[in-house]
């Protein structure tokens, strides 16, 4: 194949990128490449000009392709030499300096220039911008602005769009008093709605920028240098310099003269080829595709690829189909993401909005028939990546709309550990800061567990444990040691849970003290006792030898200890259903024992709080109701909604099912508490989707079973384990899941962690599809536990240990 | 033991547990672990949790409110900077738990 001549007019981001794409497709062997650029430089990243202006970067740092790159790739570059003519018949371009270049393929990437509005006196006699007036588009503009800003007191910027605001920021850094004059009623009207613009305005003003909205500039004042501005409303503003950032205009003149079709810009087809000449392609801001002209870089990258695919014959099917405008940017330090429309335009459009102006947070989504057609995120843009993808792909949004704006259930976008301030609390329960963890690591504790033990970080509610681990690793800088004991079921016995279960079975260890004697040299560890008790109950059920000292106080007295050492009493109330008689009895007990607080719980029961240990048995006896087990690591309760009984939407008997569940599983121990719910329809009034196990009726006697939901210290929507026919099937799957969890979860590991650790597919395989052939064993084990469960409040009549319920033993004092 | 005060009997305190006892005009948390009997101040210095309701180890007591753990022999904190006061006890042949008079 004979070599062809590729000529590129324009050495900006589009032209250079297109050439890079050609080279990436083996274009160096196919083409002799010649490029013409207006500016006397290599190709630089125009987006970074605002950084240069604000002093964050030096101009030398923003080059994408320095001059060496052209030489290395055998590209002939003519800089400082705009092309003035294209002779299509002779296939020659000619530059202002008289350079001629023949082409076989021509790419026009002339980009755009700053639009200078027709303001009176803005130009001098020669038609140039008056002294002190600048566009904001090139390195030369930047250099001029910086030099002038140094000797200016007051700077004005026309245009409150992205670039104008960036210019304003840069000018602030040079010590000027900065005024932004904007024609529209709010800032950045292309990307923001009125409300978002107002929040941005407030933030700009806090930084010291004076904002003038709805203001039209009529004239520039001054004979030589600019001295001020006059507006249409008669106001004036004295200023020493002016930056005009009122939009851009495509550079199309040379194409127009060559007879190419030009509307708002040069019109191209899906191959980025102009309509009039098969040898001429156009990419970037000077191209108009399907009526649209793009001013962002992302469309340009796509266009450059399509162009390169065609000219190199790499992929003749490549086609550009337009871009949906979505952008993430930072305006004067304010993070922003914007996509599509900024206000609803259609009756079907619904708006989802969150606004917290004080913090500069604003989120707005416009949804049309379940798809995202517009969005604004300011301040917190953690969801931007997901939303921009959904917008770009036009994908169906999840029904749960709140999750579109916020991270629910998953840890929120974390600031990096480098950015985290030293005094920020990592553990809120125990008030442990980042620097406290750092000091602890420096003192020689190199494992997460050692740091947790020493600082108590992560030992409150536990929700920060993984963050603590990350902070320890960060301070240890790779020297973090793994503590093998984190894999042990309890720290004092060096065995994982399966190993321990095997040892307990082999050696027939039926009591906690026997486990300590056999496996830890007889040394008893207080914190390990309840964990071992839970394990033994699960293994041995009715054969478990109950030693009361292995129980946490709640399980010794069957009530929940409060901060003052009193207890709370929650009688069973299956499915949250009660009766007038029960209510009267509860009320009478509350009065008789002067119960300080009577409270409805989140689990649809009644809590009598502040009862002394001594009164517990009397209270239970007077109540005559079974325990609600509202204190232990065990099955707790099953909430329900009205279901089919009275509700006009009910599809399943949620109350009846909740009662069945409660009567079967009450008193069954587990590694951590289990909170259940049943919902009579997908409206989910009983919040079954955020329970450890939840059953939701979906009609025709079908129930969806959710597992691993949570709405406490951690928030997580449960995963659908399966959909089953009938209440009996719900009972069966619930039992199998519970038993598998009881046997395999770590101590105090809630289902929301367990389900994520094991994986919903694996759980489904085991408990629904019986992949391991163990469901019969699970059923049998659960049945044993159900049979062994009892109502502990019966101990009111027969105390199990000496002085079980005494608040105080009074010695007789005899010597 | 001259001057020692009988504060409880072994049978009053189940193995591995603790009880709050009033003797010699003060409250004590008395524990009976599988290694012996111990007495401490009744409340955890952290948030005044009732230590007698805590879980015991061989030589430790863990407060039921926030898991602060102390050595029953010395009162030293195991996972906390705090420490607690301990009182020496003896057990008579009849199973009587005696508090040394000096401690009272």
Automatic annotation (TrEMBL), chain A:
<comment type="similarity">
    <text>Belongs to the nitrite and sulfite reductase 4Fe-4S domain family.</text>
</comment>
<dbReference type="InterPro" id="IPR006066">
    <property type="entry name" value="NO2/SO3_Rdtase_FeS/sirohaem_BS"/>
</dbReference>
<dbReference type="InterPro" id="IPR036136">
    <property type="entry name" value="Nit/Sulf_reduc_fer-like_dom_sf"/>
</dbReference>
<keyword id="KW-0479">Metal-binding</keyword>
<feature type="domain" description="FAD/NAD(P)-binding">
    <location>
        <begin position="5"/>
        <end position="290"/>
    </location>
</feature>
<feature type="domain" description="NADH-rubredoxin oxidoreductase C-terminal">
    <location>
        <begin position="326"/>
        <end position="390"/>
    </location>
</feature>
<feature type="binding site">
    <location>
        <position position="685"/>
    </location>
    <ligand>
        <name>[4Fe-4S] cluster</name>
    </ligand>
</feature>
<feature type="binding site" description="axial binding residue">
    <location>
        <position position="685"/>
    </location>
    <ligand>
        <name>siroheme</name>
    </ligand>
</feature>
<keyword id="KW-0285">Flavoprotein</keyword>
<dbReference type="InterPro" id="IPR023753">
    <property type="entry name" value="FAD/NAD-binding_dom"/>
</dbReference>
<dbReference type="Pfam" id="PF18267">
    <property type="entry name" value="Rubredoxin_C"/>
</dbReference>
<protein>
    <submittedName>
        <fullName>NAD(P)/FAD-dependent oxidoreductase</fullName>
    </submittedName>
</protein>
<dbReference type="InterPro" id="IPR016156">
    <property type="entry name" value="FAD/NAD-linked_Rdtase_dimer_sf"/>
</dbReference>
<dbReference type="GO" id="GO:0051537">
    <property type="term" value="F:2 iron, 2 sulfur cluster binding"/>
</dbReference>
<dbReference type="Pfam" id="PF03460">
    <property type="entry name" value="NIR_SIR_ferr"/>
</dbReference>
<dbReference type="GO" id="GO:0046872">
    <property type="term" value="F:metal ion binding"/>
</dbReference>
<dbReference type="GO" id="GO:0050661">
    <property type="term" value="F:NADP binding"/>
</dbReference>
<comment type="pathway">
    <text>Nitrogen metabolism; nitrate reduction (assimilation).</text>
</comment>
<dbReference type="InterPro" id="IPR045854">
    <property type="entry name" value="NO2/SO3_Rdtase_4Fe4S_sf"/>
</dbReference>
<dbReference type="GO" id="GO:0098809">
    <property type="term" value="F:nitrite reductase activity"/>
</dbReference>
<dbReference type="Pfam" id="PF01077">
    <property type="entry name" value="NIR_SIR"/>
</dbReference>
<dbReference type="InterPro" id="IPR012744">
    <property type="entry name" value="Nitri_red_NirB"/>
</dbReference>
TrEMBL record, chain B:
<dbReference type="InterPro" id="IPR036922">
    <property type="entry name" value="Rieske_2Fe-2S_sf"/>
</dbReference>
<dbReference type="GO" id="GO:0051537">
    <property type="term" value="F:2 iron, 2 sulfur cluster binding"/>
</dbReference>
<dbReference type="Pfam" id="PF00355">
    <property type="entry name" value="Rieske"/>
</dbReference>
<keyword id="KW-0479">Metal-binding</keyword>
<feature type="domain" description="Rieske">
    <location>
        <begin position="5"/>
        <end position="98"/>
    </location>
</feature>
<protein>
    <submittedName>
        <fullName>Rieske 2Fe-2S domain-containing protein</fullName>
    </submittedName>
</protein>
<keyword id="KW-0408">Iron</keyword>
<dbReference type="GO" id="GO:0046872">
    <property type="term" value="F:metal ion binding"/>
</dbReference>
<keyword id="KW-0411">Iron-sulfur</keyword>
<keyword id="KW-0001">2Fe-2S</keyword>
<dbReference type="InterPro" id="IPR017941">
    <property type="entry name" value="Rieske_2Fe-2S"/>
</dbReference>
